Amino acid sequence: MTAGTTHKDVLDWANARWDRLPAHPGLRARADEMAQKLAGEVSAGRLPFLSLPFMPELTATLAELEAGFLPRFTHMLLLGIGGSALGARALQKAFAPGQDLPGHTGKSLWILDNVDAATLTAHLSRLPAAQTLVYVVSKSGDTIETIGQYFLVKDWLRRELPAGWKDHLLLNTDEKKGYLRQEATQFGMRTVPVPDNLGGRYSAISAVGLVPAAFLGINWRALAQGFAEVAAPLAAPGLEAKTLAGHPAFELAVWAKALMDAGMNELITFFYIPQWASFADWFAQLWAESLGKNGQGSQPLPAVGVTDQHSVNQMFLDGPRNKACLFVERAFSPDDADQGPIFPTDMPESFNYLQGKRFGELLPAEALGTRMALCKHQVPLAGLRLGRANEHAAGKMMALLGATTLLTGWLMGINPVDQPAVELGKRLAKARLGAAGLEAEKAELAAFTSVAAGERGF
Ligand code: PA5
After folding, report:
1. Is the CB of 209 under 6 A from ligand 1?
2. Ligand 1 centroid to 158 CA: how many Å?
3. Confidence (pTM)
């Protein structure tokens, strides 16, 4: 087996530029403290995203849904936002890309993660209710964007299917709290569990992402298996410092925090697996919402190869020197099955180096070119190279990046599982819509909107 055909997943540190990151030895020395914290949080049940206690029950539930309920539907309409939507979208785009390709006839997943009126109207006027399952995902059960859509979609179902509307709803929400839970109880709706302490952005490998995956026929077992392989050592009882120190998530977290300490406050995630582009968006939310705290953090810059070579890459290479890069690709081999068509022999002379090559050979050549150019421009770069771009590898990557985010937050001394700053905008929007109470917000809004406008025409 040549190096190109092995299926190892590796992190490549050759261009990480530790030499420019003076904080890293001190951060590494904190493995003991971090291991103790991790062990404590896991044993207190506060990190189910790593310890996965819900997985046996979820596996049974998914198998059951897959066997009888999900096959009844051709369309799934997912209502959710943020961590309740981005994982599902990444999985869909990576492993069920058919919906974006010509001639699609199979299952379709529609994700409504915004409050665009035209989009909602279009979905409700075009989807056949009788073949549609509405999957409402909200951990809190109170998120205005999701619940706002739920009211209207529920109305639509009731109108279209007066007798059986309830059978077209599946709710994923907290077991006890929130409006959606009240709805589930009142109407006896079908639900899937979202365990305590499993926050939105850490929940992709739970019913949140795996129900849509099962619906689309994605290998969710391999996703869960890959995820568990990376997460399990971190969730093992009595985690030791040396185990944590040897775990790639800790190494990545040390690197990420050392970068911030060195003033590199933007992190490019360059995905050279085109169908995995949405994982960059999934990660951006995970990283930004977890780590943007107290004036600290690093701004995620999601990018996809090769498209962004012709877009934002100039800035990556020659803009402010405040960027590092996580470069995600898969090991390429000329033996790979789907390399696309072969270039014809009658090529113009200026392109004749392509003759006889397969279309699929462009991607690894361009990936190498960009990776090397970034390194030559002194951008610290960690390579995440996957043997195969399959569900198992995606599960491993998601666990790695989730654990890295958590550990980076702890190294920063912040809480990586809350998001207090985004609450203000939500309260102000509710106040603007006239929600009861919120008197202080209403007064602040009045003051803000009465300031003499700084508007100029353009
Ligand atoms: O990651 C998070 O915690 C958030 O992005 C939430 O997922 C998002 O705000 C939606 O929340 P909920 O699932 O409670 O509707």
Report:
1. no
2. 27
3. 0.96
CA 201 to CA 438: how far, in whole Å? 27
The CA–CA distances, whole Å, from 181 to 200, 353, 411 equal 16, 61, 36
Q: What is the rounded CA–CA span in Å between residue 273 and residue 55?
A: 28
To the nearest 10 degrees (0 to 180), the angle between helices 391-412 and 86-95 is 150
Phi, psi dihedral angles at 286 (to 5 degrees): -60, -50
Per-residue pLDDT 10s for the chain (458 aa) are: 344 444 699 999 999 999 999 999 999 999 999 999 999 999 999 999 999 999 999 999 999 999 999 999 999 999 999 999 999 999 999 999 999 999 999 999 999 999 999 999 999 999 999 999 999 999 999 999 999 999 999 999 999 999 999 999 999 999 999 999 999 999 999 999 788 999 899 999 999 999 999 999 999 999 999 999 999 999 999 899 999 999 999 999 999 999 999 999 999 999 999 999 999 999 999 999 999 999 999 999 999 999 999 999 999 999 999 999 999 999 987 677 788 999 999 989 999 999 999 999 999 999 999 999 999 999 999 999 999 999 999 999 999 999 999 999 999 999 999 888 998 999 999 999 999 999 999 999 999 988 777 778 88
Is the domain covering 10-40+226-412 a CATH 3.40.50.10490 domain?
yes
User: Which atom of ligand 1 is nearest to 199's Cα?
Assistant: 3
Q: Where in the chain is the domain with CATH 3.40.50.10490?
A: 10-40+226-412, 48-217
Residues 6+ apart with CB under 8 A from 335: 4, 5
Q: Is the CB of 404 under 6 A from ligand 1?
A: no
CA of 179 to the centre of ligand 1 (A): 14
**Among all residues, which ones are annotated catalytic?**
289, 310, 426
Tell me the CATH number for domain 48-217.
3.40.50.10490
Written as six digits, the tokens of 208 are 């949140």
